[in-house]
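[Q] Does anyone have a clean structure-token version of this?
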Amino acid sequence: MARNPRPGDFLKFHDLLPGYPTTGWTGKLALPKLLNRRRTQLFLRATGHTDFTALCSAIGFVGVNWALMEQSLDHSVHSIWNNVPGAKGISNEVPRTSYSRKSEYLTKAVTRIPLLHSYRDEVTRILSISDRLAEKRNDITHSVIESLHPVKGEYLMTTFDVKKNVRQIRHTTFKAREFPKLSLELVRLGRDVGALARKLITQFGY
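[A] Here you go.
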């Protein structure tokens, strides 16, 4: 019989939502599985903890601000690739997918193309911050919490790393006390990448 979790309990999905495997907890299949009234009540009761609500807000804040920043990064890459001589020689197509590809492209562009050398210091500074925050963003966004309640102000989380086609389990944490600094860094990063995109588009076009 399902029961309410107690502080310190690890998430046992067969306790909260009987019959559903962990792999179905997130993604497009999650909502239909929660539509059953009894299970929905169990879920809402289990997640009513204020710390959990704060965690969800923090994850949402990170996701929204990262998306805004990365869109400005897309504009920067697009402006360079479409308009700057030599830019297409670095990549056969505009890097549109992963953040890491866009970061790599911009680094090569401001290093190899003389017309972009004046942006090298600015881009290097911005990417040094965004590369570091990308790791934290990925952990927060893609990890699964191990407990509905924090332990000494920390949420324990588990994620998978793929190295040489081998999936490896990695444990990480989200510390509530780190969020004010992280949120400020994300807002400032979005501002700086937006300013970079505007300068590139003004000089070279879109």
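[Q] Thanks! Anything notable?
[A] The beta strands are 144-145, 154-163, 166-175.
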